[in-house]
Automatic annotation (TrEMBL):
This is Nitric oxide reductase NorD protein. InterPro entries: NorD/CobT (IPR051928), VWF_A (IPR002035), vWFA_dom_sf (IPR036465). PANTHER family: NORD PROTEIN. Residues 213-244 are annotated as: Disordered. It comes from Pseudomonas rhodesiae. Residues 421-610 form the VWFA domain. CDD domains: vWA_norD_type.
């Protein structure tokens, strides 16, 4: 019996491989993956005019209403396919391309889609818009014409023969072929009951995933339906809406004498943390189709409880009232006044603590280095008089005199005392992502604590004025700024204890934290003001702050800081930082620490380099 079952499974697997191979229309040996080309395609997209805040992601599969042949129906293939699309937030390209029989053509197709998306706008008519964008792209860059023609001819050779189709489908197929070869020549597509074979050279309308927010015109802020950042790593899921009849069950008969008590009022207290289902993200990742439902309950009839925050007796201590701050909405291109509530807090149970013994040797070395900066003497070039000759100035003078244009300049070097007239504020990201392990002994938050301690020891040795803050957030109403050391406080055991009491939690609403730090740093009288941001990831939160919205708001906050004369600089350990930090902080406004364990030693040295070159 067991042998028979194994034989049946073997025959079934052989048949499945055979029929699937015969029915497939792609070329697996020439497959190109998006993950291998994602950074270069994103660079090409932005270099040719695409918006910098648009993310490049994998496209989800769509249902295809094609006329399939017998082999396709038996094998169950060609029912779905990922198609390229672009909206105001994301450019979605197929996760892999095996459309053509050669790798070179599939790579060309990826590049063509990135270029086309860079010149695309809002889509109103699929065929006319794609023809117009293609025509404009070829007119602006005529050198792309040979590549485009190669793609078109190679694709048309793989499309269904119009002679094998019925009259309506053949007319549609011929119209699409003409639109590909002569962009702009087809104004209206013929009608057909069956859809045409997909056009991989064109962009498709964004796939509306039956968003649960859009229901009967109800107004929601989206907080209840947001997906926590990082839980969905792949392409978006297809969804359909189903009616929930759970409230329409039968009559429940219960004996009242079985009820032990009855109360009209229940005191609800929070003594334990709520947690997400650990298997929910894994199960959702395995599903191809999600069914969404909602009970039809009036807003006034429901009780909405936010149990995301810890109870008051274990939460950090608030300092004063909350601060209302603006936030940038890139969709409206305006600041929303008072949109965010920021609460300054102090870590609970922060008792004065000495420096941990493991950091004594490194702290002593850094203090000695930075104490020399108090009496630092620097060479001033091109002086009228001095103790040594400025060889570079003399060489410039000699070359200019040989060419007949000689400007007056000093030819000496003079050594002078350097006065460090600067203030620095360090913002440290303490979101829940910093609770991740770097190795068997350290987490990210451990490295951040050590970095803050050594940074404080170094700047205290240099005598520079500085402040230390941590930040996290839980939607726009709960942006939390942990005060570790203000500008008015000395760096002592109280500050060391506050740093060691830091605990990770929540999310990363960078814009509000940067704006508040800008106000604090802007009030300093020092001439140079450095704003350092230490983080392990990109901006995110439970609401719409995830994605382009958060990136655009952070970029706007950085621009506001620069307009006030501050020098914002980001230090990150996120290996994907090159995808978004150049847009937010500029090409020279950030640095990546590839080995996070070296952050405590690198942070003071980076500060010294930044202040010396200013």
């Amino acid at each position: 019996m067991a042998f028979t079952l194994e034989l049946e499974e073997w025959v079934g697997s052989v048949w499945h491989r055979f029929i699937t191979r015969r029915a497939r229309v792609d070329f697996p040996h020439a497959r190109v993956d998006l993950a291998d080309r994602q950074r270069s395609l994103a660079l090409l997209f932005r270099a040719l005019g695409g918006a910098s805040g648009i993310a490049l992601e994998a496209a989800s599969e769509r249902d295809l209403l094609l006329r399939r042949n017998l082999l396709m129906r038996i094998a169950g293939t060609c029912k779905q396919a990922p198609l390229a699309c672009c909206d105001g937030n994301r450019l979605r390209l197929p996760s892999s391309l095996a459309v053509f029989p050669t790798v070179a053509l599939n790579l060309e197709l990826y590049r063509w889609l990135a270029l086309l998306a860079a010149h695309a706008g809002p889509m109103t008519h699929w065929a006319r818009d794609n023809q117009r964008w293609t025509w404009l792209l070829l007119q602006r860059y005529p050198a792309l014409l040979p590549s485009y023609q190669r793609l078109v001819e190679a694709h048309i050779a793989l499309r269904p023969d119009p002679a094998s189709l019925n009259r309506a489908e053949a007319t549609l197929e011929n119209a699409l072929r003409k639109a590909l070869r002569e962009p702009g020549s087809v104004r209206q597509l013929p009608r057909s009951e069956r859809a045409a074979w997909p056009l991989p050279l064109w962009l498709y309308p964004p796939l509306r995933l039956d968003s649960p927010q859009a229901l009967n015109g109800e107004d929601h802020d989206g907080d209840d339906f947001a997906t926590p950042p990082g839980e969905q790593q792949g392409a978006p899921k297809r969804a359909s809406r189903v009616d929930d009849h759970s409230r329409d069950g039968g009559l429940l008969v219960v004996r009242l004498e079985n009820l032990f008590s009855w109360s009209e009022h229940v005191e609800l207290d929070r003594w334990s943390d709520d947690s997400h289902d650990p298997d929910a993200a894994r199960v959702a990742e395995d599903l191809d189709h999600l069914s969404l439902s909602r009970q039809r309950v009036r807003k006034s009839g429901g009780l909405k409880l936010h149990l995301d925050l810890p109870p008051a007796d274990v939460d950090d201590l608030p300092l004063g009232e909350g601060i209302r701050l603006p936030e940038w909405d890139y969709r409206r291109q305006c600041l929303q006044d008072g949109f965010v509530n920021l609460q300054t807090m102090q870590p609970r149970d922060a008792q004065p603590q000495p420096l941990p013994p493991r950091l004594h040797a490194e702290a002593r070395r850094l203090r000695q280095q930075f104490m020399r900066l108090r009496t630092d003497r620097q060479w001033q070039r091109q002086q009228a008089q001095g103790s040594e000759l400025d060889l570079q100035a003399w060489l410039d003078f000699h070359v200019e005199r040989q060419h007949g244009a000689c400007a007056e300049r000093g030819l000496f070097l003079e050594q002078r005392h350097h006065h460090r007239d600067l203030a620095c504020l360090l913002l440290a990201d303490v979101s829940m992502s910093t609770d991740a392990h770097l190795n068997d002994e350290q987490t990210v938050i451990d490295v951040i604590r050590d970095s803050l301690l050594l940074f404080g020891e170094s700047l205290a040795g240099a005598g520079d004025r500085f402040a230390l803050y941590g930040f996290s957030s839980l939607r726009r109403h709960q942006v939390r700024l942990q005060q570790l050391k203000s500008f008015a406080q000395p760096y002592d055991d109280h500050t060391r204890g506050a740093i060691q009491a830091l605990k990770p939690g929540y999310y990363t609403r960078m814009g509000a934290a940067i704006r508040q730090a800008t106000q604090l740093l802007g009030a300093c009288a020092q001439r140079r003001k450095l704003l350092l941001l230490l983080t392990d990831g990109k901006p995110n939160d439970l609401d719409l702050y995830e994605g382009r919205y958060g990136v655009e708001d952070t970029r706007q906050a950085v621009l506001e800081a620069r307009r006030q004369g501050l020098i914002p600089f980001c230090i990150t350990i996120d290996k994907q930082a090159g995808d978004y930090l150049p847009y937010m902080f500029g090409a020279h406004g950030f640095t990546l620490i590839r080995q996070p364990g070296q952050l405590p030693q690198r942070l003071p040295q980076l500060y010294r380099q930044l202040t010396e070159r200013q």
